[in-house]
Amino acid sequence: MQMVFFSSYATTLYSSQWTPHNTGQYAGTCIFLVILAAFLRTLFAVKHFMEKRWLDEASNRRYIVVAGRSPEAERISEDSDAKTGTLLTKRGVEETVRVVTRKVRDVQPWRFSVDVPRAAAVTVMVGIGYLL
Questions:
Q1: Of the candidates 131, 118, 127, 109, which has an alpha carbon nearest to the alpha carbon of residue 46?
Q2: Which tens digits make up the pLDDT trace of 104-113?
Q3: Spatial separation of the C-alpha atoms in residues 44 and 121, rounded to whole Å
Q4: Has residue 103 got a pLDDT over 90?
Q5: Residue 70: which of 89, 42, 45, 52 has the closest Cα?
Q6: Please, which pLDDT band fits residue 59 given cuts at 50, 70 and 90?
Q7: How far apart are CA 126 and CA 67, in angstroms?
């Protein structure tokens, strides 16, 4: 199939209703297509930043329970020599839970908070790509 560029004012864009009849309408149609393409590229960039944020949130969502270790608050409450008071440790209130953060590269579980916006963004991008 031979591809050529031509500038006919009577070229229909999406429907017979959108057919430019003069130079101004033709230029407006070309400008619309350029703006639509720029919007599509912007959506790709926004999706990239959303994916990066979701991956960072997923990597900070890992919790590990430390087995076989009793909290210091329990040990102090069982000690008869300890005085009544508040204990503040470097791990905070819940000492048996440790937060582990790392970069994950494996398959993430399906989540409404991530996959529904991702599906909506991809659907819009596919629709605009089809129009272009």
A1: 118
A2: 667 777 788 8
A3: 9
A4: no
A5: 89
A6: confident
A7: 48
Residue 108, classified by CB atoms within 10 Å of its CB into exposed (0-12), middle (13-18) or buried (19+), is: middle
Instruction: Give the separation between CA 126 and CA 120, rounded to whole angstroms.
Output: 10
- With H, G, I as helix, E, B as strand and everything else as coil, classify residue 102: coil
Q: What is the C-alpha to C-alpha distance for residues 78 and 89, in angstroms, rounded to an integer?
A: 17
Which of 53, 50, 46, 58 has the alpha carbon at shortest distance from 105? Answer: 58
Region for residue 49 given its phi and psi (left: phi exceeds 0; alpha: psi -120 to 50; beta: otherwise): alpha
Which residue, chain included where needed, has tokens 């993430």?
108
Round the average pLDDT of the chain to a whole number and report it: 76
pTM greater than 0.70: no
Sign for the CA dihedral angle at 47, 51, 56, 61 comes to positive
- The SS3 call for residue 25 is helix
